[in-house]
């Protein structure tokens, strides 16, 4: 980006079972919309977004790699974990199976990503559990909030329940992870030279006005 208008660039990966809503969360973040019938991700997709962290007086560019949950793409998607500063580990609160598979995803992340990476566990699709009057499509929740919280605590993850459909907590999830990463940067945990997922820039302007720069593309199918 010419005349950098950000203070940091952070690399994020989004991972978890197929169909849990990883791509939908990214589209919600970058485009503020919801796709009812998105195509399954083939390999990896990319999206970026500028966010502000007002209390830190920082503009942060999130570079997000959205990976396919399908097993056959695992060896490709793993190669994108390297150097990531943040990870959204996603499950579907209406799918017990997607929750039970979390340890496998987490093991992969721990093995292939930066050991200092900040990981936030996201229980997606909470809109499906809400008892909205007149909604015929209410589905039963299969994973309680307590279970999600407990898993997160046991594995040292941040935690949030969200909905890509309603937008609930989506930006908040990325912001929470970003705050945690910036805190690590401040404490010297991430080194600008050794951690490729964290890049520091001197912005051309100190004005914190947020430009609506969001982009999305497909890569590496
Ligand atoms: N009700 C509801 N449906 C959702 C939500 N997020 C995603 N979906 C739906 O779930 C299905 C799968 O969503 P995707 O975003 O493609 O899931 P994914 O995790 O990217 O799947 P892969 O790319 O195959 O790994 C789609 O039909 C979405 O419309 C949500 O928050 N609420
Ligand atoms: Mg996808």
Descriptors for this entry?
single chain, Rab_GTPases_membrane_traffic, alpha/beta, 221 residues, globular, Rossmann fold, binds guanosine-5'-triphosphate, hydrolase, GTP-binding, binds magnesium ion
What does this structure look like?
42% of the residues are buried. The chain has a single domain (8-200), classed as P-loop containing nucleotide triphosphate hydrolases (Rossmann fold, 3-Layer(aba) Sandwich). The chain has 6 helices and 8 strands. Helix content is 26%, strand content 25%. The protein is α/β, with parallel strands linked by helices and 221 residues long. Strands 1, 2, 3, 4, 5, 6, 7 and 8 form an 8-stranded mixed beta sheet that branches. Residues 18-24, 35-38, 40-41, 68-70, 124-125, 127-128, 163-165 line the site of guanosine-5'-triphosphate (GTP). InterPro entries: P-loop_NTPase, Rab_GTPases_membrane_traffic, Small_GTP-bd, Small_GTPase. GO terms for molecular function: GTP binding; GTPase activity. Belongs to the small GTPase superfamily. Rab family. Keywords: GTP-binding, Hydrolase, Nucleotide-binding. It comes from Schizophyllum amplum.
């Amino acid at each position: 980006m010419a005349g950098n208008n950000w203070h940091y660039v952070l690399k994020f990966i989004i991972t978890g079972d197929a169909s849990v809503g990883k791509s939908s969360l990214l589209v919600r973040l970058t485009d503020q919309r919801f796709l009812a019938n998105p195509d399954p991700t083939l390999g990896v997709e990319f999206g970026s977004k500028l966010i502000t962290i007002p209390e830190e007086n920082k503009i942060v560019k999130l570079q997000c790699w959205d990976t396919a949950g399908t097993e056959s793409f695992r060896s490709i998607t793993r190669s994108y974990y390297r150097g990531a500063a943040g990870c959204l580990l996603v499950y579907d609160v209406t799918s017990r199976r997607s929750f039970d598979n979390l340890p496998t995803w987490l093991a992969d992340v721990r093995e292939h990503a930066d050991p200092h990476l900040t990981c936030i566990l996201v229980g997606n699709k909470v809109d499906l559990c809400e008892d909205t009057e007149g909604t015929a499509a209410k589905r039963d929740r299969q994973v309680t909030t307590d279970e999600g919280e407990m898993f997160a605590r046991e594995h040292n993850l941040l935690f949030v329940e969200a909905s890509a459909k309603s937008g609930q907590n989506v930006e908040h999830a990325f912001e929470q992870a970003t705050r945690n990463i910036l805190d690590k940067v401040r404490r010297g945990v991430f080194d600008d030279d050794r951690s490729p997922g964290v890049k520091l820039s001197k912005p051309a302007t100190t004005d914190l006005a947020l430009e609506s720069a969001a982009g999305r593309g497909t890569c590496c199918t």
